[in-house]
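Handout for the seminar on molecular recognition.
Each group receives one record of this type.
Step one: identify the two inputs.
Step two: read the structure output and locate the region that could contact heme C.
Step three: write two sentences on what you found, then compare them with the reference statements printed after the record.
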Amino acid sequence: MADNNPFPGENNTGHIWDDDLRELSNPPPRWWTILWWVSLAWCVVYGVLYPMIPFVTDSSKGILNWTQIGEYKEGLAEVEKIREKYESRISTMSAKEILADAELSNYISHGDGAGAGKVLFGDNCSACHGSAGQGMSNFPVLADDDWIWGGGVEKIVETITNGRGPKAVVPSPGMPAHGATLSTKEIGGLAKYVVGLSEGKDDPNGKKMFMEKGCVGCHGMDGKGMAVLGSVNLTDAIWRFDAADRLSSAAYTIQHGVNQMANPKSREAEMPTFGGRLSADEIKKLAVYVYKFGGGN
Ligand code: HEC
Ligand code: HEC
């Protein structure tokens, strides 16, 4: 081929098209060769420092001993160190003291880590009480200042730890069913009276019946209830069960009672016991978190 190369002395490959279009055989540009060697060197350095060559169940380690999981653990340890500062104090303080400590109560209500109030509440409480304590039908609102059992932060600790209702650590009697002892008319009259109370009216005839039929024993002369019995305040506009139709809701409660295990129609109001399930610190955090919904008193 070289014999009939019309461009002798040139380092072409002998491939020629259209009379003078030649393929030359030049070395690659210098900058390109340098980059090539640099990247090769980089690979070797990387392989020495970091894990690179896969084996069957493992891989080469690299002299830095770096691993992804190691880096994650280091990061976690750093976060733990910051948390530890708060967590160690929480375990030595009462819920009341924590609440009074702006830094700690802020940590509980605004943190988003695994131990923060929001996460604990979301995992354990929101199914019944709503994601922000707004409550739902038959499950009380925690974000208002109306409390069945008391809204002091230590009372809230007690409620969460021991539960409330027939299976609580200290079981509560609930409200008896009056269907067997009162006539439909009497039940209707009492329902009307208590709904009146919640609207600011206090009918004397109704009051007489309220006293005669024993309602006062638990709900008090003024109908405001007693926190020790969990006998809700009947005079406020916050209705515990089926709020939409107060009159028939009240009649139903009076007829079938609350937490009467033997009566399948009885209303249920059971706050589970969290004492064995959550740690004391978690319960304190939850109490502070619930209190800070805005309704604590
Ligand atoms: C299975 C449903 C359920 C779950 C889960 C639940 N609760 Fe309750 N909770 C109730 C019911 C029902 C009541 C009302 C008890 C009553 O009427 O006596 C209640 C009452 C309360 C009260 C008292 C309210 C008052 O007015 O005095 C607090 C505080 C409370 N819950 C906090 C919590 C917290 C915090 C959690 C999560 C650790 C939680 N609850 C989980 C059902 C639940
Ligand atoms: C042994 C105590 C007891 C007696 C007696 C009693 N109650 Fe109750 N009552 C309760 C308790 C406790 C609750 C609240 C249960 C809960 O929410 O956990 C309640 C709840 C109610 C409610 C529901 C309020 C709401 O927010 O939905 C009405 C209405 C009511 N009672 C009316 C009466 C009337 C009327 C009488 C008299 C016939 C009466 N109660 C007698 C303990 C009692």
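Reference statements: The beta strands are 12-17, 21-24. The longest strand covers residues 12-17.
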